[in-house]
Amino acid sequence: MSDPSGVSHPLTAATTVAGVIGDPVRHSRSPAIHNAAFRSCGLDWVFAGWEVGAGGGAAAVEAMRTLGLGGLSVTMPLKAEVAAAVDRCSGAATTLGAVNCVAVEGSELVGHNTDGAGFVASLRAEGIDPAGRRVVVLGAGGAARAVVAAMAEAGAESVTVVNRDEARGRRAAMLAGDRGRLGTTADVAGADLLVNATPVGMAGTPGLPVPAEVLEGVAAVADLVYQPLETELLTEARRAGVVAIDGLGMLVHQAAAAFELWTGRPAPVAVMRQAADTGASSVV
Questions:
Q1: Would you call 66 a catalytic residue per the annotation?
Q2: Cβ atoms of 93 and 39 closer than 8 Å
Q3: pTM here?
């Protein structure tokens, strides 16, 4: 059996099923990424997507338990709902109050948050270690909060959060402890690493999250947006001679961490990245 999601083996009643929940998920690349990984490792698993809207998180967790699913990826708007519905949360998920991955551990459904670790792994894959760096994070939503906490844990010298809502920005900065602070766009110039964790630049929300001129003194820019893959921010960063990192790396590495939690096997990251890249090139 073969289909566009990457499944290439006969599915039976013994096949372990995993999937992603959220709204929307119809254009998610997670099925292609995970099915490529399962196929590469010879696992009798399959990954699907289920559109579950706000308010459905707890029911989805119960369905996972009832149906014996092997794992769940969780995206917006369900991360907080799922965190409240699982049997327990791991450290990062507890700190953030958000779950992006549910794993079966014995008789328990355990909520994890692999976003921050996935982002750090994606940076290191590009030869960038956050340790000792001055990091500026744009945004204060769920992805931004995961990045802020992960940057501090990875040893960043400072983590400055820039957000229109100062109260939200200050709360996000607190996740970095004494290394976190609330800043303004003036703090972007001279940053070792600028991270765009806002939706600005995403398909349907074009534009730049900061003025292009402030990128001149930045050493590296990472954009968590991956649709489109080449955002206006990355284009301007490259024009300024700045190292530019697209959002697929974080997507792949957070998925790799989830794969390992579910299966207990090392994730085939190169295979997963290739599947993500193929999906990116097919997006019109």
A1: no
A2: no
A3: 0.91
Q: For residue 99, with 0-12 CB atoms within 10 Å meaning exposed, 13-18 middle and 19 or more buried, which class applies?
A: buried
pLDDT band at 7, cuts 50/70/90?
low
> Tokens standing for 186?
């003036």
Element (H, E) at 38: helix 30-41
- Are 197 and 144 found together in one domain? yes
Structural domain contains residue 118: no
**Rounded-to-integer distance, Cα 81 and Cα 57, Å:** 5
Range of the domain at 109: 16-113+249-282
Say which CATH number the domain at 47 has: 3.40.50.10860
The pLDDT confidence band at residue 132, using thresholds 50, 70 and 90, is very high
The answer to whether residues 40 and 98 belong to one domain is yes
Catalytic residue, from 29, 34, 79, 133: name it.
Answer: 79
Q: Structural domain tally of the chain?
A: 2
Of 43, 58, 52, 55, give the one whose Cα is nearest residue 19.
Answer: 52
